Amino acid sequence: MFTMSDHSHIYLHCLSRICSQDENCTTNCSPRQNQKVRRDLPDKLTAILSAGPISAAKRKLTNWPGAQIMLSVAGGLIGLFFLTALGVRAA
């Protein structure tokens, strides 16, 4: 796992294994392989892929807590109005 930084441009570099259709290239992510251990693979089976710069837009924060409070208050007032209307009608 990794965490994205606050930078607006990101560069991606990967070491990939290239397989033919006849080979079994399933990924095995056991806990032992999560350790940073580099295995020597023949050069013809690996490739280094690079991409970038990738522009990362910052997330826009919403004011959801304020809107949630306002919706709760509005719902409570509407409920109180209906209870009052039912009480007046019953009397």
N-to-C span: 65 Å
Shape: elongated
Secondary-structure content class: alpha+beta
* Structure summary, number of beta strands: 2
Radius of gyration: 29 Å
Number of helices: 1
Q: Which sequence of SSEs, written as H and E, runs from N to C?
A: EEH
Q: What amount of the residues lies in strands?
A: 15-25%
Largest sheet: 2 strands, antiparallel
Sheet with the most strands: spatial strand order: 1-2
Nearest-integer average pLDDT: 70
The stretches of 5 or more residues where confidence is low (pLDDT under 50) are: none
Percent in helix: 25-40%
Protein name: ZP domain-containing protein
Domain ZP: 1-36
Transmembrane segments: 69-88
Keywords: Membrane, Transmembrane, Transmembrane helix
Description:
The protein is α+β, with helices and mostly antiparallel strands and 91 residues long. It has one domain (10-56, 64-90). It contains 1 helix and 2 strands. The chain has one helix at residues 64-90, and strands at residues 9-17, 46-55. Strands 1-2 form a two-stranded antiparallel sheet. The mean pLDDT is 70. InterPro entries: ZP-C_dom, ZP_dom. Residues 1-36 form the ZP domain. This is ZP domain-containing protein. Keywords: Membrane, Transmembrane, Transmembrane helix.
